[in-house]
Amino acid sequence: MPPDTLSNSHEMIPAERRARIVEILEERRAVRVSTLSDTLGVSEMTIRRDLERLEQAGLLSRMHGGAILKRRMVDEPLYATNVRTHAEEKRRIAKAGAALIQPGETVFLSSGTTAAQVLGYVDPELRARIVTHNVGALSTVEVAALDIVILGGSYRPSSNTLEGALAVEAVNMFHASRFILGADGVSLEEGVTTPSMGLAGVERAMVQRTRGEITVLADASKFGVIGDVAICSLDKIDTVVTDDAADGDIRDELERLGVAQVVV
What we know:
By secondary structure, this protein is α/β, with parallel strands linked by helices. It folds into two domains: 9-69, Winged helix-like DNA-binding domain superfamily/Winged helix DNA-binding domain (Arc Repressor Mutant, subunit A), CATH 1.10.10.10; 79-263, Rossmann fold. The protein has helices spanning 14-28, 33-40, 44-56, 79-82, 87-99, 113-118, 165-171, 197-208, 248-256; strands at 30-32, 60-63, 66-69, 71-73, 106-109, 129-132, 147-150, 154-156, 161-163, 176-182, 185-187, 191-194, 210-217, 225-227, 229-232, 239-242, 260-263. Strands 7-6-5-10-13-16-17 form a seven-stranded parallel beta sheet, sandwiched between helices. A three-stranded antiparallel beta sheet has the order 1-3-2. Strand 5, helix 6 (113-118) and strand 6 (129-132) form a beta-alpha-beta unit. Helix 2 packs across helix 3 (44-56). The longest helix has 15 residues, at 14-28. It is elongated, with a radius of gyration of 20 Å.
């Protein structure tokens, strides 16, 4: 978006300027302090104070040199709807996630439409154990040497998964060397979250029982999205697999935090 004309920007009162910052974030999702300073015609110090106030109001998260919009996820997206959203990006991300699985590993596989596609891209000759509560993942498996373990529990049609105490108990029978975690939302501040308490309970157990790498699968639309239930913080994440539409500032911040990235 081209910079705004500055003929009247100096006349903006703070509330108007902060409202404009939120509008810019809604358009871009993430923005640098220097860009806001140039666009609104005020000093970077003023912008930083504005961002601090907006963060206190719960509208954004500050990151090194800028900010990212916070978007609350109140309702869990339906599996049947989600499978058609950002389909090409999810396909590429799932293929890259499958390539990370190594022979002989025990791998936890989470819920979600991106995670569900992973098994369809695993080398048919690869021998590994996959432990999952993602019922949708079964439909992508063709001929494979994988040992697939489906956790027990209560079936949740909206997410096409199994959850509840039985699923958590089954997770605790395994030590995984890898966890491939499809994210509903990824926030620099809140980590990986979801609206569903049932899904979060199973996937928090998977985090605790993983002795190796935790890889998050998240297309660009998932960054800045926050559900009410936490799965894990970013310091638990080793790698994020995302698509090339992910904002460069967000990727820079992930790198600064020590999270490796695979961009497809």
